[in-house]
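Page 37, continued from 36.
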């Protein structure tokens, strides 16, 4: 983007489940303080534990995740009051995970990255808009980042760039989306 526009993007934004695709996008920009790193977690279908997969989103009734250990890694984990790993929900299987990678925990705690969430309905709307306006059917995982990116773009000057990581193909999700539209 630097060679194409002559400047760095104002922000890079990606969906975050465990966080591998987002950290791949964030990594080249970590040292560039002028570039906002924005991760979008699965807001699911409600605020209660078991209805979302938003480890950092403290606006949830469950309070988001707490530091814990899952699969041998200490990070933020959605867990119940007894420390047991909580079930999660997301319309997208790739974001339906109780923990987040330790790199994201560090970026969050240091203030270098910011995290928000998008609900199942917002992800579906993001998928619809991307397909309609760009001719691209994004994966449901990626679709979580689209509406937050649009909201951010409305706040920025028109010549600022945002990179949205389209990390997957939506053809695998077409049947699910069609079924949800008929409910």
């Amino acid at each position: 983007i630097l060679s194409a526009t002559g400047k760095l993007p104002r922000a890079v934004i990606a969906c975050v489940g465990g966080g591998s695709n987002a950290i791949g996008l964030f990594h080249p920009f970590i040292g560039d303080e002028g570039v906002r790193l924005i991760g979008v977690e699965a807001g699911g279908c409600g605020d209660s534990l078991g209805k979302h997969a938003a480890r950092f989103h403290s606006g949830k009734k469950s309070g988001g995740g707490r530091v814990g250990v899952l699969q041998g890694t200490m990070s933020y984990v959605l867990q119940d009051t007894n420390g047991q790993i909580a079930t999660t929900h997301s319309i997208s299987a790739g974001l339906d995970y109780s923990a987040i990678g330790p790199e994201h925990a560090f970026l969050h705690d240091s203030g270098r990255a910011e995290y928000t969430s998008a609900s199942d309905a917002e992800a579906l709307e993001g998928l619809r808009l991307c397909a309609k306006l760009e001719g691209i059917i994004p994966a449901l995982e990626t679709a979580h980042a689209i509406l937050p990116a649009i909201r951010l773009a409305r706040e920025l000057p028109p010549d600022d760039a945002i990179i949205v990581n389209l990390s997957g193909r939506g053809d695998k999700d077409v049947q699910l989306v069609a079924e949800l539209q008929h409910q």
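The chain has one domain: 10-181. Flag for discussion at group meeting. Residues 48 and 61 are 5 Å apart (CA to CA).
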